[in-house]
TrEMBL record:
PANTHER family according to UniProt: DIGUANYLATE CYCLASE DGCM-RELATED, REGULATORY COMPONENTS OF SENSORY TRANSDUCTION SYSTEM
Stretches that traverse the bilayer: none
Gene Ontology CC terms: plasma membrane
Domain GGDEF: 163-297
InterPro entries in the cross-refs: Diguanylate_Cyclase, GGDEF_dom, Sig_transdc_resp-reg_receiver
Domain (Response regulatory): residue spans on this chain: 4-120
GO terms, molecular function: diguanylate cyclase activity
Top-level taxon of origin: Bacteria
Protein name in the entry: Diguanylate cyclase
Family annotation (NCBIfam families): GGDEF
Length: 300
């Protein structure tokens, strides 16, 4: 199962009981006895579900839930509030604070697992929706909007740290001819394979996205220009050397790549970097294709 559950209760006895019950069912259980530790743990382990007692000294469950829902990291984690009170006022307040559900003490095991399973199903559904909003449906890469958003964030981070950043724009050569000759389904197969080649070549730590159509974007941080160019050359060569099988035919595909690079002492915005990468890509296309070109801040 390996689902992570964070249990928060100031009663060590009741905490121990819940830990034993959940552990015996195969859940990975984390626990703490106060709201401050709960916030810290939730941000570090990102549990699948949080069981949160309402009545606690210092930071009570209501305040913890409110802070969890304000944080980008934890707002989508289902919170099941636990209360020993039988009135509806606390339950109403908990649900208004976007708690997913509630449990009344003493806790019934059947009800506990029913509510946890319901929360896990909800989170799984939400995670799928979130992934669909983030990823390109065909290639599985980041979509255009998220690629640009992540590039902007990396750009700001690198500026704060006074570090360099690079952006590469990649385009499949003669892609329209591939679609016209072999059909759009074959074109989609090639897009997916090239996406896989790009991600496997640059490594999991790099931000890779589908910029649009047959174009891709890659963000490079904390790397010198020579190393970025070497990686891009490796991508170009790996695509060129790959045998693309379409039906009973084997075809060759090439890509062109444009790179822009912002050194430590350069004054360039993130959108200027994209423009420069596009200029370099255009030059690669118009000078024979299947090559890597670089455009600097002040010219070639």
């Amino acid at each position: 199962m390996n689902k992570k559950i964070l249990v928060v209760d100031d009663s060590r006895l009741e905490l121990r009981i819940l830990i034993d019950i959940l552990s015996n069912e195969g859940y990975v259980v984390f626990a703490c006895t106060n709201g401050y530790d709960a916030l810290d743990l939730a941000n570090r382990i990102l549990p699948d579900v949080i069981l949160l007692n309402i009545v606690m000294p210092g930071l009570d469950g209501f305040e913890v839930c409110k802070l969890l829902k304000k944080s980008d990291n934890t707002r989508d984690i289902p919170v099941i509030m636990i209360t020993s009170k039988t009135g509806s006022k606390d339950i109403k307040k908990a649900l208004e604070l976007e708690a997913f559900d509630y449990l009344k003490k003493p806790i019934d095991e059947v009800e506990l697992f029913a509510r946890i399973n319901s929360a896990l199903r909800f989170k799984s559904y939400q995670d799928k929706l979130k992934e669909m909003a983030m990823k390109d449906g065909l290639t599985g890469l980041y979509n255009h909007s998220l690629l640009i958003e992540l590039f902007q964030k990396e750009f700001k981070n690198q500026e704060k740290k006074n570090r360099s950043i690079g952006f590469a724009m990649l385009d499949i050569d003669f892609y329209k001819k591939v679609n016209d000759s072999y059909g759009h389904i074959s074109g989609d197969i090639i897009l997916k394979k090239i996406s896989s080649i790009i991600t496997s070549t640059v490594g999991a730590s790099k931000t890779v996205g589908r910029y649009g159509g047959e174009e891709f974007g890659v963000v490079f941080t904390d790397m010198c220009l020579d190393d970025i160019k070497k990686i891009c050359e490796n991508i170009r060569r790996n695509v060129e050397e790959h045998e693309f099988i379409i039906g009973d035919k084997s075809i060759k595909i090439t890509i062109s790549i444009g790179i822009s690079y912002k050194a430590l002492d350069e004054n360039m915005s993130w959108n200027e970097m994209i423009e420069k990468a596009d200029e370099a890509l255009y030059r690669a296309k118009n000078s024979g294709r299947n090559k890597v070109e670089i455009t600097f801040r002040h010219g070639l």
